[in-house]
Structure formats: C-alpha cells, structure tokens
Amino acid sequence: MKLKPLADRVVIKAVEAEETTAAGIILPGTAQEKPQIAQVVEVGPGGMVDGKEVKMEVKKGDKVIASKYAGSEVKVEDEEYTILRQSDILAIVE
C-alpha cells in the first residue's frame, strides 16, 4: 500500500532517535523524546488551499525538522508515518 497525500500535505518518517547521550548513558525508550528530524516519503501536489496558492517547497527524500506535536500519526504495513501540512515543517536539513 502506498500513501498519496492531498493538497499541501506531506508524509514523513521519523529518523531514529539517539539511544545514548553524549556522555555514553543509554536511554530507555520511555525517556527518549519524539524525534523532530524526519525523512520526506511523499509530497502532495500543492495548489489552492484555503483560497491561497501553495507551492510545495519540500521534495521526496529531503530531511526536515517538523514541529514536535504536528500532524497525524498513521501505521501502514508495520511502518509508522506522520502526515502533516507543509507549514508544520520548520526547516530542511542540508
């Protein structure tokens, strides 16, 4: 199954969080923060959204930083994704 986002939506997949601190302390899964860096999996076509023209700035394969609690989390074929609006993406990581 493939996800195809609509309008200004973007599908991202979180990059695994570091499991150890800089000092070498291993963190259990419950102590780790939700990762904010993610890989763009699919991008919607953009177009007219709420009466305004939206040009998509991100593309498939980009690494991005997204708002911490933005979007809707979905699980497809044992993979977890987040679907959010392009405006919830804060930056592209180069």
Walkthrough of the structure:
Helices cover 0% and strands 43% of the residues. It has strands at residues 9-14, 37-43, 47-49, 52-54, 63-66, 72-76, 79-85, 89-93. The strands form two sheets. The protein has a six-stranded antiparallel β-sheet, with no helix packed on it. It has a two-stranded antiparallel sheet with strand order 3-4. Strand 3 and strand 4 (52-54) form a beta hairpin. The chain is elongated, with a radius of gyration of 15 Å. The two termini are 30 Å apart. The model has no long low-confidence stretch (mean pLDDT 87).
What key attributes describe this structure?
94 residues; mainly beta
Task: Show the helix and strand layout.
Layout: E1 9-14, E2 37-43, E3 47-49, E4 52-54, E5 63-66, E6 72-76, E7 79-85, E8 89-93
Antiparallel strand pairs: 1-2, 1-7, 2-5, 3-4, 5-8, 6-7
Quick summary of this structure?
The protein is mainly beta. Helix content is 0%, strand content 43%.
